[in-house]
Design brief:
mainly alpha
Length: about 120
């Protein structure tokens, strides 16, 4: 059960952050951005399901790309000067790197091949 712990932890953290962001955006802007956020969450859930059930490297790459591109778009958004915007840019970039290199990280910290 300890297989892919780094990847699963990163995915859980991603889902928690996405749900918190949905609530924060709803409280600040209202329901006008909910449809786009639901689409983003749905795409992530599809990719996550493919990663966890089929161990799809394509889905893993696409999820990583989603996070890296989100961080790059965040750099040029008008909210990037606020602290929360900067934190989200960093979060997306770091989570993208962790998801992509989860095997290497698990090997380095000794989580690989533990039964």
């Amino acid at each position: 059960m300890k297989e892919r712990m780094v990847l699963i932890s990163a995915i859980i953290l991603t889902l928690i952050v996405e749900l918190i962001l949905m609530v924060l955006v709803y409280n600040k802007v209202g329901s006008e951005r909910i449809p786009s956020q639901i689409v983003r969450l749905t795409i992530q859930l599809i990719l996550i399901t493919m990663i966890l059930t089929r161990k799809s490297n394509v889905a893993l790459f696409l999820l990583t790309t989603y996070h890296i591109v989100s961080s790059l778009f965040g750099l040029y958004s008008k909210g990037s000067t606020e602290l929360l915007g900067q934190i989200l840019i960093g979060f997306h970039f770091i989570i993208g790197i962790i998801i992509y290199f989860h095997d290497w990280i698990e090997n380095k910290i000794g989580l690989k091949n533990i039964e």
